[in-house]
Amino acid sequence: MPVQGVGTGRLLASRYALRQRRATLGAIEVWAATDSTLGREVSVTVLPVSDPHAEPLLEAARATAAVNDHRLVRVLDVGSRGDVAWVIEESLADSTSLAELLADGPLPPEEARRIVGEVATALDVAARSGLHHLHLTPHAVRRTKAGLIKIAGLSTAAAVEGTTVPDHAEAQRIDALGTIALLYAAMTTRWPLRTTVPGLEAAPRVAGVVAAPSELAVAVPADLDDLCREAFTRSGAPRTPGELAQRLGPWSHTLVRHVAPKPVAAPTEEIPRIRAGAADRAAATSGGAGAAATPAATPRPPRNVPRKPSHREQRAHDKAAQAAEERREIAARRRDPGFLDVPEALDTSTGPLEPPTPLVAAPLEREGRYAKAVIGVVAGAMLLAAVFAAVSLRGAVQDMSQAVAPAPSTSATRGPGTSTTGPSASASPSTSTDVGPIEFTGVRALDPEGDDSENDGGVHKATDGDADTFWQSEGYKNADYQGQKSGVGVAAKLPRDAEPTTVTVTLGDTPQDATVYVGSSRSIDSATKIGEFTDATGEQQADVPEDARSDARYVIVWVTKAAEQDDGKYRAIVSEIVAR
Known about the structure:
single chain; alpha+beta
């Protein structure tokens, strides 16, 4: 039933002119509209103020709008007037859902890694703000023509479906499992969970266990195959999107276009026939508000003869293969000791992953395509803000209230610049110079005063054992980050039983100001300062005070003055962190 008083030409908020209704879900409608102020296309979700979903949807949209992450569909405006409530989002007219991409066959494994890595990173960002997706499917993830990844349905999908959000840890487990399911689907075109996804067949099961991706497709990287096996064969998997992103990295920052091999034929278990409207159901759950009303696409026939990859595509494939080989060599260093038994979580948490109630879909202009920029977009942009708070809490639970005062320590400089440490700094060498390096169990970029995301995809280079590689921050207009923050940095996680005595940091060739801390969490507020370097380059060393060693779970390199680069921008650069 149409929303009362809403039709073509209606102006919302004295600005957004409705042009065409794209999809419906009960009383919720999604419209293509024009922002008359800026002259741009937008997506508008409208519903009656009296609808029981109205208030939860608007609250979820406002929460998601507070998260600044380019992977989330942006919420531009939220409001109501009279009997009508609305959510305004950026248009996704130039994007394609992952479900539509898979209609042509599996993606290249390194492109699957890239897409899922971006999704996991965005969900990690959202979780830190207390927001979660809970209804993740290939219909909730979109890729633009430029290769950018967009996520729809964060927070709002659950609001539209009336899903009761579980506790924070459980919600993260559900999102981590859903993200691994996306990886499986991207490499095989099969869906490994027991929910139904329109356009995708169910993954085959052998003795009740989901077949590994390598049993359905060729050239599946060993680490991705192992990850899926762990998730679906009761041997454990990452418990949070943040852990998953760390496990997947590094990935390509550009679209990987080489042709993927066809999946190997394999018998599948019988799948119940999908009732009319069931396709719309699943698409709605994935996308949330806007995507919830997305009509299902008619699957396009697969292309039988793959084209020969171009020289550029083959080169991209070779680079991706080289990155995969490097990743395998350092994989053992990147895993945290604790993992979740994901199938067990499935047994107790299937509720949020179930498909929603059937939809009534409005016809689209083009038959056989999913509606673009629909209600799920609303859901998507909103949840991103949430993911930030979750993973940060994990390291902070170890008595953050007990701040350790800076203690006397030793600091020695091996590159230009001056350095200082605690009140009684001296030039005496460390007593543990013969001890080998401690292997870090994880590493994360730090931007607590910004969007909490600072070139996360390259942060592994700060602890890869190679001083010729480096992590660098995003680019800024001046060395003090345009006055918007005191610094950015890197936090490397130590094993539980490690007690470091010295930390060596290798900076870039251009002078930077940096401070080194150790502490029980990734926050510098409760950490112990062990070294401070001014206009420093190259290797810098700091000693860890004896009374700070037992609580040292993290080594934090905090860059307060960024280095000027050839392109005129300023970036923090950390080549290597070594603890002994």
